[in-house]
Design brief:
Length: 251
């Protein structure tokens, strides 16, 4: 059988919206899409803190111009950040519903300190505010967070493992090989092609570079290039798992 022809796909798999309390209020669905296209991206993943309420709106704003993967960035009980990428908006929403139930309701002191958590429509209109305290750690242990993402068909990525806080190595003091990550993520502070990348590749997992952008100017400032037959979630899974000739590399 003739293998599928591959295209080069540039992806930033960790982008926040204004739903994240630390996200800038300008991170609206249409503004994120415009910033991603201006950065030459083909795929983004929306990964708000402990929530997925804006992922569908970003996808709607993008239409056929940009592939939007629905995701979440879970803060575990150990304060490890774990990115989950899902095959559908509904899968992400269902996973996020379980995560939200582990968080307290945000009070006025929380909002004054962390900021608003805006739910937005595709045109950027604010239609609500998330009532749970998304900036806090959930009660889910690392193993539970990984299992939850898996249960909804997701890919599990160890977020920004180069950072001195909230990365799995920083929080645990070691890399948990048995946790079941599919890939590890490096932040924009480790340039693509850097010799430092080799050290993180030693964990035996694919390495993706993502912006973890909370501001429009950071969207696509780093990215990962994939060789895919199409810019879809299924194709990303094949590349991360090194199947059917799909590949990923520094962008």
């Amino acid at each position: 059988m003739t293998p599928d022809p591959l295209m080069t796909v540039r992806a930033d798999l960790h982008v926040h919206t204004a739903l994240s309390p630390c996200g800038d209020d300008e991170m609206s669905p249409p503004a994120i899409v415009d910033a991603a296209l201006a950065a030459g991206l083909d795929v983004i993943a929306v990964c708000d803190h402990n929530a997925a309420g804006n992922t569908g709106a970003v996808g709607e704003a993008a239409g056929s111009r940009l592939t939007v993967i629905s995701g979440i960035e879970i803060t575990t009980a150990e304060e490890v950040h774990v990115v989950g990428l899902f095959p559908t908006v509904m899968a992400a929403a269902n996973a996020a519903d379980e995560v939200r139930e582990t968080l307290p309701v945000a009070d006025d002191d929380y909002t004054r300190f962390f900021g608003e958590q805006y739910l937005m429509s595709a045109d950027g209109t604010i239609y609500g505010r998330e009532p749970r305290a998304l900036a806090l750690a959930t009660s889910l242990g690392l193993d539970e967070a990984v299992e939850l993402i898996r249960r909804y068909g997701g890919l599990v990525i160890a977020a920004h493992i180069d950072r001195p806080t909230f990365g799995v190595i920083a929080q645990l003091g070691f890399f948990p090989y048995e946790a079941g990550f599919d890939a590890v993520e490096l932040s924009r502070h480790v340039p693509a092609g850097s010799a430092t990348t080799d050290g993180y590749a030693a964990y035996g997992l694919p390495v993706v570079h993502s912006s973890d952008s909370h501001y429009l100017e950071d969207v696509g400032c780093v990215a990962t290039e994939f060789g895919l037959a199409a810019p879809t979630f299924r194709e990303l899974v094949l590349a991360v798992k090194h199947r059917e000739g799909r590949v990923l590399a520094d962008a």
